[in-house]
Amino acid sequence: MDGHVPSETVSPSDASRATNAPGCSGDDDPGPTIRDTGPETAVRGDEPAARCPYCHQPFHDERFETLHRGLEHPSRLSDRERAAFERAYADEGTDIRWFRLQALGTLLLLYFCMLFLYAVVT
Description:
This protein has three helices and two strands; from the N terminus they run H-E-E-H-H. It is mainly α. Keywords: Membrane, Transmembrane, Transmembrane helix.
């Protein structure tokens, strides 16, 4: 199914509303502009450590702001900012890889502890 709605099920008033919906190319008024402000971010303390210069979202750490700018505003980055984003992205990948290894080690330890406990109990 290609998502096409048969024409007999769409009333003329529904069709005119669909063409004048926000974001669609209508005749005169495209409708109100809805701005996505992103998720609410609670920052501890009085002042955030960093704030995005484009969308003004606060961040606890400048590293998070650098990652945000590279992921959400890539076309606005200068070469220096892009290099900082790539470094932060690589560091984040290393941190995630280390976390995964620790989680795997914890699960293996838990598995063998449960196996020995089962062997002792039965």
